[in-house]
Write a structure and sequence with these properties.
heterodimer, A: alpha/beta, six-stranded mixed beta sheet, 22 helices, 20 strands, 24% strand, B: MetI-like fold, 2 domains
């Protein structure tokens, strides 16, 4: 009963000042009796109907701030100073009982990872109904409200979806369901914690567009947490830049982008691919000299057997008549949304899978049917860098062991010469030699990816396959890795087959681009042509989805010539 | 096994000096771990070395921290063999420190060590012979001269318990060794090769699992005859299926990891991948299970000897002692209760150690 009253009271006073007011907030994490501050002296107000974006790298305290607002700090987290006011009520250090009244109904959360954010054993509709029921809606109306929430979140066939389990939905749809759960509570503020980091750029844009539309329509406030200044600038009324737990700069996005005051903000601008090029996707290589072909895929097709179902086909065509060619010392960017067959193409090129039809040629030699032992000597010539540096390094190997492993496998050199080679490779990927003894757990994501790149270069290959090498990293780290890859190519003359869903990333590296959609190449050619004058609608859509284009014109006008990289 | 248990977990045991090093590592990769905040906060030196713990590593920490944050990384070449050894020792000490901070774990470990030492060299802790009868002192209650009292023939019960440890410890060690070797081999082969090999091996394991543990042990002991080795084999076979299952599950998990694929594309043979990547990374849960199964083995062995399937008298196993005391339960309850309590404490300690190790691995 008292909970009911508490539920009503905060919502009963609409538009009475800011929804969230943080004053001098400091949050620390207690570990072994001492407190490490994650957020220091943060002042932030969010007015009704306002969209605020908090930008910063991992570890900058942006998620901790959001969790403090929601009262969802982990048990080790403590508010050491300052106050949190939600809808006029001071909730600093309030009990969970009090905070529960605010969650969902005043402040709604769209969590980061759509793959783990839903209960896999409950139907979608049931999960949304939980929130609706908490508003005290009449039992008979709950179902209608659930369908309405799904509809408003942009889920197609809401009646069918409500009866499905999360496992049946794609990542984008799950993210929409999470949004539906957030809006079903009719909150006055939606906190979106990296709502799209796990998604393709095109899906990301659709989701953010939709969220923006919803907010504008209902007058809800929105707090976006992101590491991508491009995303923040595109969506927000106000951008807050955080570094090491402190707010270093805040203001209107145009002001932040065009007249950044802090070096850190400038660093973030330079890191966002689209922003650093004055708001557009600009190919790095416009003038491509012909080079000999190293790898050629000829009319590759690949069928996967599907599990037996009541109806439908028994096979799934993942690739259909795909032809690619990678040239020596140059980069082929293979672009497509998830599920378009990019990774399958790469695995076939690497000989990790056999194509159903078509041939793979390496230097004119047909390697399609080569077995493991026939392919093994050729492996020295092409190497792979995985997408996720957190799982591609053996946690029990030191950096030196990891990098030297291909040398050991191929019995190259002795102990001393391998150690020398490891030092040389560490130097090439700009890691200090002292890192040789570290384990992966002691490295950051960017450092791990550098180690993985060093490993792939150990055998001096002609060709390196890069499977979304930066999509698991923060934008600023992405930029460093891409610069490194570019430099390595210039120094070592290695060719890349670069897979990505993000055209802005591909633009920084690729000489040639091929766009893959549903297993077919819809457009391919020199990067300059594809990126500046795309023919296909889908390519244009991919280009348009690159975040950071809202202020493209202003940026282009303000950037003096020569500051473009 | 110690290697896995003591492997560094960054968030748990990474010494502050490493965190600081990561933070200052490269200016080119500024994504510092979230724990590191502005220098003054992250580095209160004395907080890391509590007064009560005179671990040598605690002394090393402030010295390393004296390196100013932002100083140049050590010059190349410092990472020599000597550095590796020092580092390794440092790792082990750093990993052991949180363990030492748990009084429950320390007590359990000390007790297990005591049992093992007293089992191997009982004369260290008792001057009585286990078979020396003193009819005048029969059925005496626990006292300073006879810690556990005496039995119906006036033999010192404490001495008999400690001498009984010898047999139980040897049988337990043998049983767990058999289980680890057989279970690991079956699990690795099944998980690694898959297909029909996996199918056949796992069906055999299923059959073993379907039979009650004690019943199977009894059958094996009856078939092989009495004695230390048959008991070890019997108990070993009964706990093998759990090892095989756990190992297989871990191997299946590790086999799919991208770093295995990375090693394969780096040209590593399956043998190398198995020995260098799959086995070390599968070992963690198996090692926990091994400690846990010491407890199970102790219980099963004691049960067997309680039922009269142990080594024949006058040798006294724990189960035999408990069984003998049954006749005097009303008049001299300590004859059964104290050995029983002793066995219970051993199993409890082993379980607690296993649990702590499992928590450390998370």
């Amino acid at each position: 009963m008292s909970a009911e009253a508490a539920v009503d009271s905060p919502a009963a006073r609409p538009d009475s000042g800011p929804i969230v007011e943080l004053s001098g907030l400091s949050v620390g994490y207690q570990q072994r009796g001492r407190t490490t501050l994650a957020v220091e002296d943060v002042n932030l107000t969010i007015a009704p109907g306002e969209t605020v974006a908090v930008v910063g790298e991992s570890g900058s305290g942006k998620t901790t701030t959001a969790n403090a607002i929601l009262g969802l700090l982990p048990s080790s987290g403590v508010i050491t100073a300052g106050r949190i006011r939600i809808a006029g009520t001071d909730v600093t250090g309030a009990s969970d009982r009090v905070l529960r009244a605010f969650r969902g109904n005043v402040v709604g959360l769209v969590p980061q990872d759509p793959m783990v954010g839903l209960n896999p054993t409950m139907r979608i509709g049931g999960q949304i109904a939980e929130v609706v029921r908490r508003r005290g809606v009449d039992k008979r109306l709950v179902n209608a409200e659930v369908i309405e929430a799904l509809e408003r979140a942009g889920v197609d066939q809401p009646v069918v979806r409500a009866r499905q389990y999360p496992g049946a939905l794609s990542g984008g749809l799950r993210q929409r369901v999470l949004i539906a759960i957030a809006i079903a509570g009719h909150p006055r503020l939606i906190v979106a914690d990296e709502p799209t980091s796990a998604l393709d750029v095109t899906v990301q844009r659709r989701i953010l567009d939709h969220l923006g539309g919803l907010v504008a329509e209902t007058g809800t406030s929105l707090l976006i947490i992101t590491h991508d200044l491009g995303v923040a600038a595109d969506r927000a009324d106000r951008v807050v830049v955080m570094q090491r737990g402190r707010i270093v700069e805040q203001g209107e996005p145009a002001a932040i982008l065009l007249r950044p005051q802090e070096p850190y903000t400038r660093h973030l601008i330079a890191a966002a691919p689209a922003l650093s090029h004055a708001g557009g996707v600009v190919p790095c290589f416009t003038d491509v000299t012909p080079a000999p072909e190293v790898l050629r895929l000829d009319g590759i097709g690949k069928d996967f057997r599907l599990p037996r179902t009541a109806s439908g086909e028994r096979t799934f065509r993942a690739l259909d008549d795909v032809s690619l060619s990678v040239r020596a010392g140059q980069t082929l960017g293979l672009v497509g949304e998830s599920g378009s067959g990019k990774t399958t193409a790469l695995r076939i090129a690497m000989g990790l899978e056999k194509p159903t039809q078509g041939r793979v040629h390496l230097d004119g030699v047909d390697i399609t049917d080569a077995g493991w032992s026939e392919l093994r000597p050729l492996r020295r010539r092409f190497q792979l860098v995985h997408q996720n540096p957190y799982s591609s390094l053996d946690p029990r190997f030191t950096v030196a062991q990891t990098i030297a492993e291909p040398l050991v496998s191929f019995r190259v050199g002795d102990r001393a010469s391998r150690a020398a080679r490891v030092r040389e490779l560490l130097d090439q990927v700009a890691l200090p030699a002292a890192f040789a003894d570290r384990k992966p757990a002691e490295l950051s994501g960017g450092q791990r990816q550098r180690v993985a790149i060093a490993r792939s270069l150990a055998l001096e290959p002609e060709l390196v396959f890069l499977d979304e090498p930066v999509s698991a990293l923060d934008v600023s780290v992405q930029e460093q890795i891409l610069t490194l890859l570019l430099r390595l190519q210039q120094d070592l003359g290695v060719g890349y087959l670069f897979i990505s869903h993000d055209l802005a990333v591909v633009a920084q590296l690729a000489h040639h681009v091929a766009v893959l959609r549903a297993g077919r190449i819809i457009e391919s050619g020199p990067a300059a042509d594809i990126l500046t004058a795309p023919v296909e609608e889908h390519t244009r859509e991919l280009l348009g989805a690159v975040p950071g284009q809202r202020f493209a014109a202003e940026l282009a006008a303000s950037a003096p010539p020569g500051t473009k990289r | 096994m110690p290697d896995k248990i003591l492997s560094p977990k960054p968030d748990l045991v990474a010494p502050p000096e490493q965190r600081a090093a990561v933070a200052r590592a490269t200016s080119s990769a500024p994504a510092a771990p979230p724990v590191v905040t502005p220098a003054g906060v992250a580095l209160p030196v004395h907080a890391t070395a509590p007064a009560g713990l005179a671990v040598p590593a605690g002394l090393a920490v402030p010295a390393d921290l004296a390196v100013p944050v932002g100083a140049a990384a050590p010059p190349p070449g410092e990472a020599g063999a000597g550095g590796q050894v020092r580092r390794r020792r440092h790792d082990i000490l750093a990993a052991a420190r949180p363990l030492l901070r748990r009084p429950g774990f320390v007590l359990a470990a000390l007790f297990v060590v005591f049992v093992i030492v007293s089992g191997l060299v009982p004369s260290l802790f008792t001057s009585y012979k286990p078979s020396a009868t003193v009819p005048t002192d029969k059925l005496k209650g626990p006292s300073m001269s006879h810690l556990f009292g005496t039995d119906e023939l006036g033999r010192d019960l404490f001495s008999r318990v400690l001498h009984g440890s010898t047999l139980t410890i040897k049988a337990t060690g043998g049983a767990v060794l058999i289980a680890i070797v057989a279970g690991l081999a079956i699990g690795v082969v099944a998980g690694f090769f898959g297909g029909w090999v996996d199918g056949v091996l796992m069906r055999i394991i299923d059959i073993l699992l379907a039979l009650p543990m004690l019943l199977m042990a009894l059958v094996i002991v009856t078939a092989l005859g009495f004695g230390l080795l048959p008991i070890a084999i019997a108990v070993g076979v009964t706990i093998t299926p759990a090892f095989a299952r756990t190992t297989r599950a871990e191997v299946l998990r590790v086999k799919e990891q991208p770093y295995v694929e990375a090693a394969r594309t780096g040209g590593a043979s399956w043998g190398r991948v198995l020995v260098r990547h799959v086995l070390p990374n599968s070992w963690g849960p198996v090692s926990v299970l091994a400690v846990l199964d010491f407890g199970t083995a102790v219980l099963t062995i004691s049960s067997l000897s309680f039922l009269g399937f142990g080594t024949p008298p006058p040798a006294a196993e724990w189960g035999t002692l408990i069984s003998n005391g049954r006749n005097f339960l009303i008049t001299s309850p300590w004859l059964s209760l104290l050995p029983g309590l002793f066995v219970g404490l051993v199993v409890f300690s082993l379980n607690h150690i296993a649990r702590t190790l499992e928590e450390m691995q998370r």
